[in-house]
Design brief:
single chain, 899 residues, alpha+beta, 8-stranded antiparallel sheet, 4-stranded parallel sheet, 25 strands, 48% helix, nucleotide-binding, ATP binding, EC 4.3.2.1
Length: 899
């Protein structure tokens, strides 16, 4: 039976792309694939479709191809990147198709997020970034961790979980080029989304004539962070029947909100503590072999459903099935040539389908996305547990062998290392050398790679290392960075992180070339340089956080400049003051700490690289060049000082401690001022908590976190100082490890305290009436009255004594008005007529008077601008050094790419 022609516009390179074409042929269609590069599809050798080579990125060209086909029944694309183009051409040809504008909105995840938010569909907080500065600005206001991903992408390509600002910036740079080798296009627009904690699911939906049919809800299994590679799916998701129906309705609501009224949709969402959250809606059939598994479970081909739908034959929802299914994938964990791949057992009846996604002899590269999968297995049974167990047994039987570099042993970990003979006792290894975790060690690995880039460029330009060898090493270092060092995840490092990293390079490039990497350097100057890179990033990051807090303080100070509030001394009311005066005081105190951070950053001028183990080197290196490529101004001046000293760290931790002490004092004041007895400020409910027992109680508990964080920061300084004080003046584990390791915890604790303080300052409210109540009896104005009497010739001590006696005679049983009246009767016109008059009289010595406060605000704004510019200049200098280094690396690699 010939049903006419069916045109596929490009395709998935694995999985359902090939299967759709095969099913179309079996259904009786003459199958065509239009593509600009047939070489992308190895399965074409099996003649699954007739190939038409054309520019698929041109709508006119696609229309021309479609118009030439006889009896064209339908047009479809299984590729995320071409569903819009396929839809547009189908609409032009009068064939069944989804609305191309709706697809375009879905494909652009920024537009999708905006539309879902507009329609009140719950999504993660999402921001758009087109530059590193955008990322920094976004993260200045966001809560880590975040997810960074391309605006238009698929299969988790370029999607990374980021626990730090540094990781997010690196992920941003990586994501911009993540799709180039797939579709030949860069990704200039990147999303930064708040990470939503919870179990992940997907809903598989098919729309026909505006009616949405949910085929089911699946539970996802993910590979290790920071990647989001899907390693398995369970159907139906192990949830109650009412929950499954609610989630199907929730997912359908998102599809409907985006205007998708025809064709398949794959909806991904997370169930968080507060309910389901849409991650994204994809206007296509699910990937990851999900349609294959569903076909086995439902007893009817989901691929056939889609083909018939797009051929205009309508859609008949499948009957509900009592069976369950599971998919499991095997990932490659090391890059290299795939020497052997296969299943070591035969499938039993509960495994109706399995397959290999890579062929022996191909080069495997770890990408951190769907391309890392090498095999899959589908399990189907009456119970989900049985289906999952069947798929897992099958996938665990996969035998995979990645060929090591020539001359290497099979142990990549120790390949080429002269120190490989040192084997740490297993018990000691547990304590001192835990397996590598990218979430913990990623920043150090990034600094290591940056130092390697600078060192190799210098060695090559000095003629100390062959430029060909340097270029090859640099290419593999870039590969490791692009992969997020994923191949090192979980690797044991008995001799430290660096040697495990070096071993991976040796396994990729060969020990001959890798052996040049460590010329004229030691782990001592490496570690000292890494510690300074870590410190300056931490100090600059803290400066940026302080800047955000200063901005909030300044805004609230201006807002509250006309208010009157008690000024306290030893928790006793002293004078009429102003909340703006208090906030400005905190602003200036923070400013001095920030200035100390900037002075520290300016003082970190000498790069330790070149100092070796503490005695320099006999090799004629150019350490100034290495230093400049890493954003330092000078090389080491004294090699022993370069590797032995950690005074910058102690100074940084000291400044961190100063900031944390200041914030703790502010938190103490605010906590007292929130009490009913003081009632000067109020913290909003979303920055406070309740009591598990006392229904009336409102706890400003974030203030306690701010105070508690100070203990971690101060403890970090004491710990580092104690570790360093008895260490010899040379490189030692006490200084390089225990003297520097407290920095990370201190930075995290201080950031937490600053961010929490910023939130409270920004959103707390002032209780204007309460601030005035305890001032209305006039006693707080008696100091100004005494000073006025002194200005009229009465000795101040005499005036002080007289007013003190009058104040003591005032009866606390009398009303506020009566006490105020009695004071006025004794002090005549010396007593200010109003609280505002009294406050504004305090205009000298930096007091809270309006004239004084206005001057302070002007100075604060100028200081704030200068500090912001200074912080920006420091970051800009580092960015220029990095750009220069990356350009040098690129020039070397490009020069010898064909060698």
């Amino acid at each position: 039976m010939n049903r006419g022609s069916f045109l596929f516009v490009e395709s998935n390179t694995t999985g359902t792309g090939e299967l759709l074409m095969k099913r179309a042929r079996l259904l009786g269609f003459e199958t065509y694939l239009v593509t600009r590069n047939p070489a992308r599809y190895p399965f074409l050798k099996d003649s699954v479709a007739q190939v038409i080579e054309a520019e698929t990125r041109s709508p006119n060209e696609l229309l021309r191809v479609a118009a030439k086909l006889t009896g064209l029944a339908g047009i479809y694309s299984s590729s995320d990147y071409f569903v819009e183009a396929a839809s547009s051409v189908a609409m032009e040809m009068g064939l069944p198709a989804a609305n191309s504008e709706a697809i375009a909105t879905c494909r652009n995840k920024w537009k999708q997020a905006a539309e879902l938010q507009r329609q009140s569909i719950t999504i993660p907080e999402t921001r758009l970034a087109t530059s590193v500065r955008d990322v920094e600005n976004i993260l200045a206001q966001a809560t880590l961790p975040v997810v960074v991903k391309p605006v238009s992408g698929s299969g988790s390509s370029g999607v990374r979980l980021c626990e730090s600002v540094t990781a997010a910036i690196e992920a941003f740079e990586s994501a911009r080029g993540a799709l180039i080798d797939q579709i030949g296009l860069p990704s200039p627009d990147i999303l930064v989304q708040q990470y939503v904690e919870g179990k992940e699911y997907s809903a598989e939906i098919i729309a026909c004539d505006g009616t949405l049919h949910c085929l089911g809800i699946l539970a996802k299994h993910k590979g290790p962070a920071p990647f989001f590679v899907e390693v398995g799916h369970d159907f139906p998701a192990p949830l109650s029947e009412p929950s499954l129906k609610e989630l199907a309705s929730f997912a359908a609501g998102a599809v409907s909100a985006l205007g998708l009224e025809f064709g398949p949709a794959h909806v991904e969402f997370v169930i968080s503590e507060s309910g389901p959250v849409i991650i994204e809606v994809n206007p296509r059939l699910a990937g990851g072999m999900i349609p294959v598994m569903l076909s086995h479970v439902l007893g009817t081909s989901t691929l056939d459903m889609v083909i018939r739908l797009y051929a205009g034959e309508g859609f008949a929802p499948p009957r509900a099935s009592a069976r369950a299914g599971a998919i499991r994938f095997r990932l490659a964990h090391t890059s290299g040539k795939l020497k052997r791949l296969g299943f070591s057992r035969n499938p039993d009846p509960t495994v109706p389908e399995m397959g290999l996604l890579k062929s022996e002899g191909v080069e495997v590269r770890i990408n951190g996305d769907f391309r890392d999968r090498v095999a899959y297995a589908v399990g189907v049974a009456d119970e989900l547990d049985l289906a999952a167990a069947a798929a897992e047994r099958m996938i665990e039987s996969v035998v995979i062998d990645v060929e090591a570099a020539a001359g290497e042993s099979g142990n990549n970990q120790d390949a080429g290392l002269s120190e490989g003979r040192w084997t740490l006792h297993p018990e000691a290894m547990k304590l001192l050398a835990p397996p590598i975790e990218i979430s913990r060690d990623g920043r150090v690995l990034q600094y290591q790679a940056a130092i390697d880039e600078a060192h190799l460029v210098m060695l090559a330009e000095q003629g100390l290392v062959s430029q060909v060898a340097a270029a090859d090493l640099l290419k593999h270092i870039l590969d490791l960075q692009d992969e997020g060092f994923h191949s090192l995840e979980g690797r044991v490092a008995p001799r430290g992180l660096y040697l495990a990293y070096e071993a991976e390079l040796a396994a990729r490039v060969g020990p001959g070339k890798a052996g040049w990497l460590h010329l004229a350097r030691s782990r001592n100057d490496l570690n000292a340089t890494i510690s300074l890179l870590t410190l300056r990033e931490a100090a600059c990051s803290i400066s940026q956080e302080i800047g955000i807090l200063q901005d909030s303080l300044l805004q609230r100070a201006e807002e509250a400049s006309k208010l009157v509030a008690p000024l306290y001394s030893q928790y006793q009311i002293a004078l009429p003051g102003a909340p703006g005066h208090y906030l400005l005081g905190v602003f200036f105190a923070l400013g001095r700490e920030r200035q100390r951070l900037h002075c520290l950053l300016e003082d970190i001028t000498n790069c330790p690289m070149g100092a070796g183990a503490g005695g320099g080197t006999s090799i004629p290196i150019d350490p100034l060049h290495t230093a400049s490529l890493l954003g330092f101004e000078l090389p080491p001046f004294n090699s022993l000082d370069a590797v032995a000293s950690r005074d910058h760290h102690l100074q940084g931790l000291s400044i961190f401690s100063g900031v944390s002490i200041l914030l703790s004092r502010v938190a103490q004041d605010l906590q007292v001022w929130t009490t009913r007895e003081f009632a000067l400020v109020d913290i909003p409910h979303n920055l406070a908590g309740g009591s598990s027992m006392l229904p009336q109680k409102k706890n400003p508990f974030l203030l306690e976190h701010i105070k508690g964080s100070a203990s971690t920061v101060i403890g970090g300084y004491v710990s580092a100082a104690t570790a360093t004080c008895k260490a010899p003046f040379s490189n030692s584990i006490e200084t390089s490890n225990y003297g520097c390791s407290p920095l990370r915890l201190s930075e995290e604790a201080l950031k937490r305290a600053i961010i929490l303080t910023s939130l409270i300052v920004k959103f707390m409210s002032f209780n204007v009436q309460s601030m005035r109540e305890n001032l209305e009896d006039g006693t707080a104005m008696t100091t100004v009255a005494a000073e006025r009497m002194a200005s009229r010739g009465v000795p101040f001590r005499k005036a002080h004594t007289q007013i003190g006696e009058i104040s003591r005679r005032l009866s606390l049983n009398s009303s506020v008005a009566e006490r105020r009246s009695e004071l006025a009767s004794h002090l005549a016109d010396a007593l200010p007529a109003s609280l505002e008059e009294c406050r504004d009289a305090l205009r000298f010595g930096g007091g809270p008077g309006k004239g004084s406060t206005d001057s302070q605000v002007s100075v604060a704004k100028a200081l704030f601008r200068d500090m912001q510019l200074k912080c920006g200049d420091i970051r800009e200098r580092w960015a220029r050094a990095e750009m220069h280094r990356k350009q040098k690396v690129k020039e070397l690699i490009d020069k010898y790419r064909s060698t």
